[in-house]
Amino acid sequence: MSTVRGGLVYPVDVAPHAERLTPTGVAQLVDWASGRVQVLDLGTASGDVAVTFANALDGAVYHLVMARGDDDHAIASWPANVRWPGGVPPILEDAAGSRIYHVVELVYQEVDDVYVARDLSAAETFIAKNAVGEAQIEADAVSDGKLRDSAGASVIGRAGSTAGDPADIVAAVDRQYLGRRAGTLAFRGLELADLPPLAVSGQVDFGSGVESDYATVALAVNWPATTVVMAAVRGGTADHPLADEDALLEQLTAVVVAQSGTSVTVGVHAPNGTWGKYVVTIIAGGVA
Q1: C-alpha R_g of the chain
Q2: What is the model's pLDDT at position 82?
Q3: What would the CATH number be for the domain defined by 194-287?
Q4: How much of the chain, in percent, has pLDDT values that exceed 90?
Q5: What residue ranges do the domains of the chain occupy?
Q6: 89-106 burial, b for 16+ CB within 10 Å, e for fewer?
């Protein structure tokens, strides 16, 4: 409809009207000449509905509202000349026990004979699973402030060895380190077993007749000079017969006192009154 004013022709908008479509089969023609807002009731269809369009005007904006109840049918296909963001048509939401209204907006462009579409429901209320592809998200589009709230002193990830939703992995106290044990990722205190194990052996001399409870041994290694080393005595043998030598060996402890790129000096402690030479094996964990 139009009106002439001062020799110019102006369009006249008709009163707002929403045309309601109630398909009984599996196909529905949406005739835009009947109204720029049309409601497609999917509850009356016998199956998923194939939608076709007709009589669109160049530059006109149209809205299609899809009404869908619990377990109602969905859209089987859209016209081939509809262009969706990322090439992905919307997936209609389905809420048990309620009626859902899904809205899409279309702008018709006559030269190329295409409908440029936008899923208003996904943009404003929800995004259906797999509705947004990686190509639709710009690099660095989501800032830290928009990502999510996290627990204090935590990282985001999966603690278990199965795939699934991420969660907070929390460092509960100071001096805990993130590591995996028995298939579980968590913050814990560092243990020797958490470091790459290296075993080297050397002889310690606790005085050879002079009582002493401390001796050092230089062990050849091939670690970087910046390596952090932890050491412990795994076991050893005595070079003289003592009735209690096994008990003494069980009580030996070790600690790294110096290191370089080719050797590490280990201090070995024994019970008071120990003397003699012992061959001990040092288990060391090295981390560059």
Answers
A1: 38
A2: 97
A3: 2.60.40
A4: 36
A5: 2-136, 194-287
A6: ebbbeeeeeeebebbbeb
